[in-house]
Amino acid sequence: SSHGTTMMTRIAIHISIVASLAATIHAVRFVHAGATTIYSFSLKPEELPPHRPPSSRGGKGRGRLPPPAAFASPSIPPPPPISVPVWSLAAPMGESPHDDAARRPTETGTSMNIVTFATPVSVAPPKLWVVSLYTDTLTRRAFLDSKVGVLQLLTPEQKVLVPILGKRSGYEGGFSKRGECAKLDKGDKFRWVSAAMDGESPSDALISKDDGSSAASMDLLPGCASYIKLKLLSVIQAGDHDVALCEVAGTGVWNEEFCCIVQDFGAAASVPRDSNTVLYTGLLRSEGII
C-alpha cells in the first residue's frame, strides 16, 4: 500500500542519516565523575552542533561544547610520598670535556651529593643497581666521566649533611661541601676521609690503589651505615634525571679502629637496617629538611 511504501521510504531516509552521522562522528562518550565530560569527535570544534548533556533539569542543561583545551586530561596527582633510605653518591673528579669557563667546579678530588633514588634491580650476579641523578649536578658529571663511584647509606645522625650535600651545588663559587661538612660541630664525625688506604691500612679496604688513580683519589664520609662501590654500565635519560645502571663492584662498612671503609664479607649484611640505624626520607620530611 501507499502507506507502507511511505513508511519504508522514511525508514530508509533515517538509516541513511544515521549511517552518515556514524561515518562523521567516531565516538561520543560521556563520563560523569564530578564535572568531567570526555568527547571524541572528528569534526572541528567550530563545526560542532549544540549539545545537551544528560540532565535531570530539562532545558537548563543546554549548552555548547567546551573549547578544545577542556578536553585535556586532568593533571596526574603525585604518588604518595614513601619513606626510603637516603644515599649519598661520591664520585672522583678530573678533567672533563664538559668543563667551561662559566661553570668550573669549586671542589677538587671528589664530588658528593644526595641521590634522588637508588635501588637494586637484580638478584643473581652480577648485582645491578640503578641510581637516579638530577641532570644539572656536578656529581652526575663526575660519575658519568669517571664511571666509578661509591654509594653511602647515611645514618640518622648524618641528617645534618643533607642540606649541604643535597641542596647546594659544587658549581657555586666560594662554596665547598667538603669544608662545610668539616665545620659542623661534631669533631671529625663529618670530616671526609680518604677512600684509598696506604700500606698501613687493612688489606681488605673497600678502595685500594688497585682500583686505579681515579677511584683512589676519592674521599668518603666516615661512619655511614653501608658503602656500595659502583661501576657505571649505561645511562638513559628520564625527564629531569638520568637513570644510571650500575654493577656492584664491592660493599663496605666503616671500621672505627682504622678509621677507614673496609670490605663487607657478609657479617654486616646480616645486621638489620631500620630507622634506628639508617636515615630515611620520612624523618627528613617530619623535621622539615625536605
CATH class of the largest domain: Mainly Beta
**Uncertain regions: pLDDT < 50 for 5+ in a row?**
21-49, 51-59
The number of distinct β-strands equals 10
Gyration radius over CA: 31 Å
Which series of helices and strands comes N to C?
Answer: HEEEEHEHHEHEEEEH
Shape annotation: globular
By CATH, the superfamily of the largest domain comes out as Electron Transport, Fmn-binding Protein, Chain A
Which fold does the CATH topology of the largest domain refer to?
A: Pnp Oxidase, Chain A
What portion of residues is helical? Answer: 10-25%
**What percentage of amino acids are in beta strands?**
15-25%
Count of individual domains? 2
Euclidean distance between termini CA atoms: 84 Å
Q: Would you tell me the overall average pLDDT?
A: 77
Structural class: alpha+beta
The profile of the biggest β sheet is: 8 strands, antiparallel
Number of helices: 6
**CATH architecture field of the largest domain:** Roll
Notable characteristics:
Pnp Oxidase, Chain A; FMN binding; two-stranded antiparallel sheet; 19% helix; 290 residues; Flavin_Rdtase-like_dom; Split_barrel_FMN-bd; 6 helices; alpha+beta; globular; 8-stranded antiparallel beta sheet
TL;DR of this structure?
The chain is an alpha+beta fold and 290 residues long. The protein has 2 domains: 2-71, no CATH class; 87-286, Electron Transport, Fmn-binding Protein, Chain A (Pnp Oxidase, Chain A, Roll).
Describe this structure in words.
InterPro entries: Flavin_Rdtase-like_dom (IPR002563), Split_barrel_FMN-bd (IPR012349). One of its GO terms (molecular function) is FMN binding. This protein is α+β, with helices and mostly antiparallel strands. The chain folds into two domains: 2-71, no CATH class; 87-286, Pnp Oxidase, Chain A. 19% of the residues lie in helices and 22% in strands. It has helices at residues 2-24, 138-146, 162-167, 177-183, 213-216, 281-286, and strands at 87-92, 110-114, 117-120, 128-134, 148-153, 193-194, 219-220, 226-238, 241-255, 260-263. Strands 1, 2, 3, 4, 5, 8, 9 and 10 form an eight-stranded antiparallel beta sheet that branches. Strand 3 (117-120) and strand 4 form a beta hairpin. The longest helix has 23 residues, at 2-24. The radius of gyration is 31 Å and the shape is globular. Mean pLDDT is 77; it is low at 21-49 and 51-59.
